[in-house]
Amino acid sequence: MGRLFWKFFFAYWLALVSAAVAVGIGVSLHQRGESARAPLVDPRARFAVEAAAGLLRSAGPAVLADVLREWRLEGPEGLLAVDDAGRELLARPVPGPVLARARRAVATSATHEAVREVSLAGGGRYLLFMAAAPEPPPPPPPPLHAPSRALPIAAGLIASLAFSACLAWYLAKPIRNLRWAFEATAAGRLETRVQPLMGSRRDEIADLGRDFDRMAARLQSLMAAQRRLLHDVSHELRSPLARLQVAIGLARQRPDSVGASLERIEREAGRVDELVGELLTLSRLDAGMGEQLPPETVDLVEMVAEIAEDAGFEARNSGRQLTLSATGEALCRAQAALLYRAFENVIRNGVKYTAEGSTVEVEAGPGADGCFRLQVADRGPGVAAADLEAIFEPFYRGGSNGVVGFGLGLAIARGAVQLHGGSISAAAREGGGLRVEILLPLQA
């Protein structure tokens, strides 16, 4: 068991024991107070003294004597009536200590004694008191095999211990699982998941476990993407560097072909420079550095029209066409350079992959939902349904049909669009080809 288990265990156990002790003390003090407020005199003795006092006051000593004889209260115990001279009404012996106690009770007005002093109308006084309180009825016999007082205390301690242990285990176990998962992730086992260990819990600790699983899955995805990116970059750089080495070797071996070799070297160096530039742009977008660029207020429809004009000129030179349908005005405050790069990559991709003699259709404009919408539809080879998401990954070039490129254009476009809170998606076009759609929220 971990330290957290014992902290939970002792905290809850001490809380339960303290609550039980406090309740016990409160009940005991309450019972003592009730017993202190309860009269200490027997109610039968008080009733007898009060009745005798009333009879003496209304009917006189003779009638009281007859009543006492009928009650047969004889002997040293029972109701006594003593006059000022110390004579008892029925001439019964009165113990001196008993008489002195009764007179003190009258003098101090003690309420715990059944004593009354009655003054007669014709003179004289009588002191009425009980010589000894009637014995209370005997208590009921104790049940056979009466339980000890220690039994409920022991049962309470055992119950509190069991409850505290269960509660501490319930709270500490998922935390131990989370600690194990963090240690495993720190050791590089990014496939670690903690949700299966949580069982059917539906509390904040289970939510924390689900958050950890999402974090681990994201880390695993990022690490896999990083390894794949390093592999693709090394692969892309290897080809132009190899051609550079070949061109340099030819220049050394054939001095008469230095000019052609230099052109080849310049072309391959340009390709390497272009690749490095694309990678730098992509890394800045992944790192969120695009947000550091100063925002500008631009008309996205006008931006698309400018890009479409340049791309249409290139399309006509390669036997293709580009049509633009742009309406309205879409003002947006954003990083204009990044959005220009994103729109240009998508439109030029359409021109690059569409078949000869076909037309790339570009539609742009603000929508009723407050978003700018750009659609680029080509008549190229298209993309398999399973790869519609993969085309936005770096270095993906499936179905390129020999078209030159690094496979970074759509990845950069996705990063730029997501940086501005938008979305980009691709879908197969009926009749062949691909349709790419960009949605961007327009901000005032």
Description:
The protein is of the alpha+beta class and 444 residues long. The chain has helices at 3-37, 43-59, 61-71, 96-108, 150-186, 195-198, 204-253, 258-286, 300-317, 336-353, 409-419, and strands at 79-83, 115-119, 125-130, 296-299, 321-326, 331-334, 359-366, 371-377, 423-428, 434-441. It has 3 domains: 43-130, Beta-Lactamase (2-Layer Sandwich), CATH 3.30.450; 196-287, Signal transduction histidine kinase, dimerisation/phosphotransfer (DHp) domain (Helix Hairpins); 292-441, Heat Shock Protein 90, CATH 3.30.565. It contains 11 helices and 10 strands. The protein has a 5-stranded mixed beta sheet. The protein has a 3-stranded antiparallel beta sheet with strand order 1-3-2, sandwiched between helices. α9 runs parallel beside α10 (336-353).
Q: What is the element layout, followed by pairings?
A:
Layout: H1 3-37, H2 43-59, H3 61-71, E1 79-83, H4 96-108, E2 115-119, E3 125-130, H5 150-186, H6 195-198, H7 204-253, H8 258-286, E4 296-299, H9 300-317, E5 321-326, E6 331-334, H10 336-353, E7 359-366, E8 371-377, H11 409-419, E9 423-428, E10 434-441
Parallel strand pairs: 5-7
Antiparallel strand pairs: 1-3, 2-3, 4-6, 7-8, 8-10, 9-10
Helix pairs in contact: 1-5, 2-3, 5-7, 7-8, 8-11, 9-10, 10-11
